[in-house]
Description:
Helix content is 35%, strand content 20%. The chain folds into two domains: 6-207, Rossmann fold (3-Layer(aba) Sandwich); 218-283, Orthogonal Bundle (Helicase, Ruva Protein, domain 3). It has a seven-stranded mixed sheet, sandwiched between helices. Strands 1-10 form a two-stranded antiparallel ribbon. The protein has a two-stranded antiparallel ribbon with strand order 6-7. By secondary structure, it is α/β, with parallel strands linked by helices. Helix 2 runs parallel beside helix 3 and helix 8 packs across helix 10. It has ten helices and eleven strands.
Amino acid sequence: MPSMTREELYRRAMVVRAKKRLSQNFLVEPSYHKLVSDSLNAAPGDTVVEIGPGLGFLTEHLVTTGARVIAVELDEDLTERLGQLAAEHKNLTVVNQDFLKFEPADLAAKNVKVVGNVPYQITSPILVRVLGEIDSPSPWLPYLHSLTMMVQLELARRVTAEPGTKDFGQLTVLANYYAQTKFLTKVKAEHFVPKPKVDSAVIQLIKRAEPAVQVKDLHIFRRLVASGFKERRKMIRNNLAFLGLPDNELTALLIKLGISPSARAETISLEKFARLADAASEILK
């Protein structure tokens, strides 16, 4: 297992000029690399795909697990540097490609563990790429075991939020529909080079064997969730105009489903959204 100190990682990061256009920030606190690697429980026979390995600090931990590691790096200069590590480890393959265009079928593997410290601006696209939308599953899903990412702290709280909290929203529903979500740890901005403006966190999404809830019509479920959170300060009954029900009938329906008509979307559980979606599918036939 690598035993680099923070000072050594810092010196290695300072040798490379981070590219602002790629939003590169290198994590130089070694304890977090170990934590992320350990959280995967990777072993020989597993396939791990690392998004944006950068200088290879996490990669150095991953290859020691004996798992097959596919490091997907967009930066050509960093890809060349990672080639040196690949020459030392037969279980490491470095691919110079945009992860958003990487095809999981090319891996010829199941139960793939995806991991990465990704630029903040593409975190949501990566979540959608790996999980898909509620009514449009991703091609990654049949191959996926888990997704572990370093993301902006605010987004981490949204993905792992509980109903009734201010962070619970559309992204929470999407993530938890397909996966069990965990907030692993907060990471302060000072642990990166260059230092970002905000703190980060590590989250882990483990794919469910089946979606969290079963609904009659996924398109209506997706539309319902989008409508419910469209104007977060509104009561749920005021965000459901697309159902075309008179106010008294809509109120009665919500009460029947155990939902307060004055409730806001962030207080409604995934299960109750599903039941409301089933009722909506009957109304919209």
